[in-house]
UniProtKB/TrEMBL annotation:
Reactions accelerated catalytically: (S)-dihydroorotate + H2O = N-carbamoyl-L-aspartate + H(+)
Record-given protein name: Dihydroorotase
Gene name tied to this protein: pyrC
Metal-binding recorded as keyword: yes
Cofactor binding summary note: Binds 2 Zn(2+) ions per subunit.
Active site: 306
Source species, domain of life: Bacteria
C-alpha cells in the first residue's frame, strides 16, 4: 500500500533529470505527494540530508513478473514491489502469465485490489491479449480495461500467426489499450539458447536470431498498418533494433531492451548453468553492443528489466531443463551504470532518461522531476561498490545473473508519492524534524 503522504524536504542532492533540464545540487520539497518546489537553501520541518547522493525521477519498469496470482512461492506483490523499490523503481507493469492467467475482468479486478493493499510502488496490470495466452480467442479488452487493465500482452509467448496478431491489434486499438509484444516465432525458436558458436561448442540446441527478427518485423508491419499503439519488449538482436528504428516514424511504436541483453552475452552458455537461461536468449557480443548503441541513439526508447523470479529448483538445473528468466529490479541501475556509463558507452543522463523519463512517458505518469509532478524519486549513491548476493536479495527468489559480481552505484532510497518506500540504511535516511 502506498502510505499517506506527508511533507519532506530532500536537501543537497545532485538532481538529474534530462527532461526537466536539471543537473546540479538542489533542494527538493515534496508536499502532499507531489514535488512542490525545486530550489536552493530551502528549509522544511522534515528534512532528508542527501549530501553526496544523486536524485533521479523514480525509475519505471514496464516489464515485471510478480508471479501473483499462483506462484507466490517465487514472488508476491509485497516482495516484488519491495524488490522494485530497492532498485529505485517507483512504477511497474505486471505481466499476465500467472496462474490463473490475467485474461478475465474478475482476475484483473482482484489483482487491482491486492495491488492497492500490498504494493509499495505504483503497479499497473497488463492483461492477456488472448484467452489463456493461447493466441486463438481475443480477450474482452474493453471489459478488462474497465476492470483496471492498463495494457495487453501475451508476454512469455510469441503470437501464433500474423492474422491473429493483426486482429488483436485492431481490437486493442478500439479498446484504447496499448500492446506490449514479446516477439518470438515459435516455428524458428526451437532451441534453448542463441544459435551460435557458443551453443555449438557447448552442444546445446540453439534458436536463431531470426526467431526474434521475423516476429519483430511482422509486428512492426502490422503496427504501421493498424495504427495500434505497440511496444516491442526485450529487443535483443542487431536486426530487430534496426527494424524498430526504421519503423519509428512509420508506426505508433516504442521498444525496450533489458539490462541483461545490454551487459551479458552468450559466452555464459559455456557454464552450462540453468541460471543463465533466459528468453530471448543472451546473444553474442556484437548484438549486445548493437542493442547498446540503439539505446544510446534512442532507436530503442528505454530499458525494462523483465524481472522474472524462479524457484531455485527451476533454475539449479542443466540449461536445457531450467526455466528461462532473470531477476532484474534490484541490479538494473547498478549493472548499467557499471558496464555502460563507467565504461564510457552511455551518458548518465541518457541512462536516467531510459530508466525514468521515457518509460514514465509511456505509462503516462512519473519519470519527471518537476514542480506539480508526483513525488516519485530514486536516491542513488554513485560511488558505492557492492557485491550481488543471494542472501541479501529482497525478491523472494534469487536467480540473478549478476550473483557474485561487484557493481558500482546503489539505490539507497526510493520515494513514492512523497513517502519513503525503500530505505537501505533502515534509518529513515537521516530525516530530521
Ligand atoms: O526469460 C523469460 N522469462 N522470458 C519471458 O518472456 C518470460 C519470463 C518468465 O515469465 O519467466
Amino acid at each position: 500500500m502506498i502510505p499517506t503522504p506527508t511533507d519532506l524536504l530532500v536537501r543537497h542532492a545532485h538532481v538529474l533529470d534530462p527532461r526537466a533540464g536539471l543537473d546540479s545540487v538542489k533542494d527538493v520539497r515534496l508536499t502532499e505527494g507531489k514535488i512542490s518546489e525545486v530550489g536552493e537553501n530551502l528549509r522544511g520541518t522534515r528534512e532528508l540530508d542527501a549530501d553526496g547522493l544523486h536524485l533521479f525521477p523514480g525509475f519505471v519498469d514496464v516489464h515485471a513478473h510478480w508471479r501473483t496470482p499462483g506462484r507466490e512461492d517465487e514472488e508476491t506483490i509485497e516482495t516484488g514491489s519491495a524488490s522494485a523499490a530497492a532498485g529505485g523503481f517507483t512504477g511497474v507493469v505486471m505481466m499476465p502469465n500467472t496462474d490463473p492467467i490475467v485474461d478475465s475482468p474478475v482476475v484483473v479486478s482482484g489483482l487491482a485490489r491486492r495491488i492497492e493493499r500490498e504494493s509499495r510502488v505504483r503497479a499497473r496490470i497488463s492483461a492477456a491479449l488472448h484467452v489463456g495466452l493461447k493466441g486463438e480467442r481475443l480477450t474482452e479488452m474493453r471489459l478488462l480495461r474497465e476492470a483496471g487493465a492498463f495494457c495487453v500482452s501475451d508476454d512469455g509467448l510469441g503470437t501464433a500467426s500474423a492474422g491473429v496478431l493483426r486482429n488483436g491489434m485492431m481490437y486493442a486499438r478500439s479498446a484504447g489499450l496499448p500492446l506490449i509484444l514479446h516477439c518470438e516465432d515459435h516455428t524458428l525458436a526451437t532451441g534453448v539458447v542463441h544459435d551460435g558458436v557458443a551453443a555449438s561448442l557447448a552442444g546445446i540446441p540453439g534458436s536463431p536470431a531470426s526467431a526474434e527478427d521475423v516476429a519483430t518485423a511482422t509486428a512492426l508491419v502490422l503496427a504501421a498498418e493498424t495504427g495500434a499503439r505497440t511496444h516491442i519488449t526485450h529487443v535483443s538482436t542487431t536486426l530487430s533494433a534496426a527494424l524498430v528504428a526504421f519503423f519509428k516514424n512509420r508506426a505508433d511504436v516504442t521498444a525496450d531492451t533489458t539490462p541483461h541483453h545490454l551487459t551479458l552475452s552468450d559466452d555464459l552458455i559455456s557454464t552450462l548453468e540453468g541460471l543463465y537461461r533466459v528468453n530471448p536468449p543472451l546473444r553474442p557480443d556484437a548484438d549486445r553492443d548493437a542493442v547498446g548503441e540503439a539505446l544510446r541513439t534512442g532507436a530503442l526508447d528505454f530499458v525494462a528489466t523483465d524481472h522474472a523470479p524462479h524457484a531455485s529448483e527451476e533454475k539449479e538445473l542443466p540449461l536445457e531443463e531450467a526455466a528461462p528468466g532473470f531477476l532484474g529490479h534490484e541490479t538494473a541501475f547498478a549493472a548499467l551504470y557499471t558496464d555502460l556509463v563507467l565504461a564510457g558507452k552511455l551518458a548518465l543522463s541518457r541512462l536516467v532518461e531510459a530508466m525514468s523519463c521515457a518509460p514514465g512517458r509511456w505509462v503516462g505518469e512519473g519519470g519527471r522531476l518537476a514542480v506539480g509532478e508526483p513525488a516519485d524519486l530514486a536516491l542513488v549513491d554513485l560511488s558505492e561498490r557492492w557485491t550481488v548476493d543471494s542472501g541479501t536479495m529482497i525478491s523472494r527468489s534469487s536467480n540473478s545473473p549478476y550473483l557474485g559480481r561487484t557493481l558500482t552505484g546503489r539505490v539507497v532510497g526510493t520515494i513514492v508519492g512523497g513517502e519513503i518506500v525503500h530505505d537501505r540504511t533502515g534509518a529513515q535516511l537521516g530525516t530530521r524534524g
